[in-house]
Amino acid sequence: MTKPQSPPPLSYKDAGVDIDAGDALVERIKPLARKTMREGVLAGIGGFGALFEVPKRYREPVLVSGTDGVGTKLKLAFEWDMHDTVGIDLVAMSVNDVLVQGAEPLFFLDYFACGKLNVDTAAAVIGGIARGCELSGCALIGGETAEMPGMYPVGEYDLAGFAVGVVEKSKILTGQDVKPGDVVLGLGSSGVHSNGFSLVRKCIERAGDSLPATVDGQPFRQAVMAPTRLYVKSVLAALAAHPIKALAHITGGGLLENIPRVLPDGLAAHLVKGSWPQSELFAWLQTTAAIDDHEMNRTFNNGIGMVLVLAPEQAQACSETLWAGGEQVYTIGVIASRAQAQAQVVMVA
Question: What pLDDT, in 10s, does the model give residues 109-158?
Fold first, then answer.
């Protein structure tokens, strides 16, 4: 009688997880992470946990944390094979959020998940993350790369990011000192950033073969995928020099939903139509989607990625500091008293 054969052994690689590829990726990203190191890092990439010491110059340090992703912008990254800037988006979405409470970003961790690890693609993405950290002055001190067969379609991945910053307790921005007559400054965005891409993709689908070759002096795809602007260094310089009362990062919900988050009850922001330019890309999106100005300012940043509120006598000097830091600065409105039924953001002619 023939003895039944035993099934061949199965390795983790046979199951779809390539440990060697993961090790190769870690070696690729170590020098990128090293370039982001800053004061406070005690132990970074490679351990079970990353260690960070709050800088001793803070007397009453308060930690501020934020987490976010890149959203459906990733679908275009997959389709167009453009992976080198979405990591910057990932960093920017969290560090810009931390910044609005007056905090200096200290360190960042990332989570990269895929069905099958492509080392070149992952290295491009994490290279963008390291670049974003470098530009915002925070350390990339850890993360997780998860290869999970069957969880994601071939060639696709997901990203999440986590930032921690610090601010002196006495300098936390709450918006509680905002009052009528204060000036609203807007900092120009670098494009769509990382919000509204479900509508962006619908516009691209609607346009079909009639997509413009270029917008705003760039190839169309490059303009669409331009990474979220990092406002950290310029705004921290402005915070150090001027008594800014409130900051708002213009993300999902646009100007109309994000500015109210930093206004006290009974106040509204009156934004002046046309006080900042609309880019060719946003004009194309608005025309293609056939939406009105209200919906445009509720869906996209529409050209303004960060908003500052401060006393009128401080506005000019603060603007000059921000221009010197590389920002495009526009005086876009003023704070006013709000009737109970009135919206918290009002567009005025």
Answer: 999 999 999 999 999 999 999 999 999 999 999 889 999 999 999 999 99
Other C-beta atoms lying within 10 Å of the C-beta of residue 211: 14
Place of tokens 């970003």: 105
In 10 A of CB 115, how many CB atoms? Answer: 18
User: What residues contact residue 212 under an 8 Å CB cut-off, 6+ apart?
Assistant: 220, 280, 284
CA gap 41, 244 in Å, rounded = 29
Helix axes 19-34, 119-136, angle to 10 degrees: 20
Quick one: tokens of 56?
């001793």
- Is the Cβ–Cβ distance between 137 and 37 less than 8 Å? no
Q: What is the pTM of this model?
A: 0.93
Largest interatomic CA distance in the chain: 98
Residue 245 and residue 243: Cα distance in Å, rounded?
Answer: 6
Distance, in Å, from the CA atom of 84 to the CA atom of 231, rounded to the nearest integer, reads: 20
- Write out pLDDT tens, residues 84-99: 999 999 999 999 999 9
Rounded to an integer, the average pLDDT of 196-201 is: 96
